[in-house]
Write a structure and sequence with these properties.
By secondary structure, the chain is mostly helical. It has a single domain, classed as Up-down Bundle (Ferritin), CATH 1.20.1260. 71% of the residues lie in helices and 0% in strands. The longest helix has 30 residues. It starts with a helix and ends in a 15-residue tail after the last helix.
Length: 157
Amino acid sequence: MFNTEKDAILFAIRREIEAFLTYKKLSEIVTSQDIKVLFVSLSNDENIHRESLEKLFNEQFGKRPIIDAEGIRVEIPNDFDKAYALKILDTAMEKEREASRLYRQFADESTNESLKRLFMRFADMEDGHFDALQAERNRMIDEYYWFNQNIDRSRED
């Protein structure tokens, strides 16, 4: 998939930045407090992954990774309907699955046990992100549409 380990880590860093920006933007758009908390939590996790990967890159290659973060664009309208919200969740879920597969591949290919554990931990976290997004998608389909809702389900019985 990648020519070098360096290319693989740079790709993963870019994907983590993209995920961070996506979840951050969504957290700024939604009005439902519990959904906002979900997106803030996801964005924080993706930022931690990025920082860890940048540290790993620096340790492996003796320099900071050069990533054009300004060139990574996330296009999400400030106002959208339920169908578009589902599309956003579907896309995010697929990207979480791809990230999990990528980290599992890195773990399989690594000869360093510490790196294997790091990549497997990241893969498990991405699986958790997928599950959280899937649960929200299911609630959205089964119950109500959360966008422009000022409802906090965390306090419901």
